[in-house]
Amino acid sequence: MIRLFTRPPQPPQPSDAAAAPTPMQIDGGEGHDRQLTGEEASEEQGYGEEGKEEKEKKKKKKELGESNLDGLCCSICMEPWASQGDHQASCLPCGHVYGMSCIITWIQQCHGHPAKCPQCNAKCISKDVRKLFASPVVVHDEGLQKKIESLQTEIRSLKNERAGLLDVQDKLLDVQDNLLNELHEVKKKQADLENATLGGMGSKPLGFFSAKESWGENNRHHIDSNIGKQEILPCSFVLQQELAVEGATLFDMDASYQILILARRISGMGGTHMLNKINLICPHENEDIQLPKRIRAIKDLRVSPCGRLTLLASLGKKLSILSHGSNELVINYDLPDPAWSCSWDSNNPSYIYAGLQNGMLLTFDMRRTRNPLQCMVGLTSRPIHTIYSLVNNPAFGQGAHKLLTASSIGPCVWNTGCATERPFLVPGLEDQGICMSLAYSPSSDDIVASYHPKILASNGATSSQSSQSSTALNTVGSQVLVKRVAGNFYNKLVSTSTNVSYVQMTKSTIINIENCYPIFAYADEVTHGLRLRALPNLSDSQNLKPHQLPILDVKYAHSQGSGLLGCISKDKVQLFSPKYM
């Protein structure tokens, strides 16, 4: 059934409309504007009136195509036909409708030979063309109308959901502001005391004090006050779960939702890389998540502090975000070089970071899905294998985004708030060896770096790994504890020896449990076990059940007073829970 509608003629546009200045921004939705690129801007400025008219035509064609209103435009020129004039609606014997000038020109191009209808190829000549004295024809499609109504309902629902989320965000921001104000008041006396102490050490080099001065003067009063209020209890870990896996390489835990995310490489499928999501409450409920081939091997993965999302750094030059709800990659960033590490920002939930194989550090804002906000060059072209976001302490007025990273030369501090500021090595950790691991605790500001000794090549140069088959795979290395004080100062406290590998990255983490001293957990390369050392003296406190294969990753997660320590090898995952002794 064909229904005819009358459409009033459109009033002519004012001649000065085209001459109005064109803004150099493109609206990207509510609250978002996109700046034109240089190519688009030059195109906008160089075309003049003719180019603007052509651009308006293309825009009109796109709008008409998106609206799917085939009954309103000529299928030859894609322009709306008129009720009179050269482009009056006209039809062929086959019933297809075109603008008069378009179909006559089409037929005349055949130079006297019978032409064919552009849509159905039925033969036609000029005298077959008949003018239609009617308004534009619209075909009523009930299926399309239902689809439009469904989409409109979905849009309204999404708008309502977005409004609700924005309300929740506003409330959370208010709560955060109140908590920060309270924290500022609580720590005001402590900040004054530490600043006064640091002022008395003005003769020391910026950013570094001796362990004796730092630990004895700055932290003794803090520990004594804690001991006076609550007893510091010894803590150990007991095996809670052991899960068999295949081809595991990396993992992280979502403690809030009791989810384990595993990166795996299945050798029997041609080296396929995939993810596995395991429900820790019901371990038999696990899901395989296939990754696009372009992603390649996952080098690092981090669960978001708020849960439900996982950040992935891959050798396929991709930084991706996985949704735990849909099991799909919801954001993919293209990188200039393979990614070795990634991190969420601990102060801004929209910021994420990627450490590249060439030593560069990239900053991204999840609200912008095109290019990085910032690209910073490191002190070396060697890979950044670890990234931590340093927590801003309002008591010391720290407003910039600071990052702690590690490459083979050692831990570096970056100030992402200043693109021209170069990163610097953590004071006191120069020339320690080859840095193989870095652990950081945001709650205590403890930093532990693990090193293996440098290898001297035959020409006297140093190398980060052995190239001679006679060199042992394992050796004695070192672990160094550094404490971050007042946001900008780093105090080397103690170092100790440990077993490390020349060929494998040693994984480690720092555990903070209420009423207990911090604990440093790391993989022992000789025993294939998980070893725990108490801070601040790095003394051995516990050796956990060893694996048959080397431990590939170590993580600690906590939520609502409960914590979980995990480690994986290629064939199994072990999860340990804390227990007061």
The percent range for helix content is: 10-25%
Mean pLDDT, to the nearest integer, reads 77
Major β-sheet strand ordering: 10-33-32-29-28
Beta-strand fraction estimate: 35-45%
Task: Please tell me how large the radius of gyration is.
Answer: 33 Å
Count of runs of 4 or more consecutive helical residues: 6
Low-pLDDT segments, ≥5 res = 1-47, 63-69, 200-229, 464-471
E-strand count: 40
First-last Cα distance: 83 Å
Biggest sheet details: 5 strands, mixed
Structural class determined from secondary elements:
alpha+beta
Shape: elongated
Query: What's the multimeric state?
Result: single chain
Task: Tell me about this structure.
This protein is of the alpha+beta class and 581 residues long. It is 20% helix and 37% strand. The longest helix has 45 residues, at 142-186.
Give the SSE map:
Layout: E1 3-4, E2 25-27, E3 33-35, H1 38-46, H2 48-67, E4 89-91, E5 97-99, H3 100-108, E6 115-116, E7 123-124, E8 130-131, E9 137-138, H4 142-186, H5 188-199, E10 208-209, H6 211-229, E11 235-244, E12 248-254, E13 259-266, E14 272-279, E15 286-290, E16 298-303, E17 309-314, E18 318-323, E19 328-334, E20 339-344, E21 351-356, E22 360-365, E23 374-377, E24 386-389, E25 402-407, E26 410-415, E27 424-425, E28 434-441, E29 446-452, E30 455-456, E31 462-463, E32 474-485, E33 489-501, E34 508-511, E35 519-523, E36 530-534, E37 539-543, E38 553-559, E39 562-568, E40 572-580
Parallel strand pairs: 10-33
Antiparallel strand pairs: 1-9, 2-3, 4-5, 4-8, 6-7, 11-40, 12-13, 13-14, 14-15, 16-17, 17-18, 18-19, 20-21, 21-22, 22-23, 24-25, 25-26, 26-27, 28-29, 29-32, 30-31, 32-33, 34-35, 35-36, 36-37, 38-39, 39-40
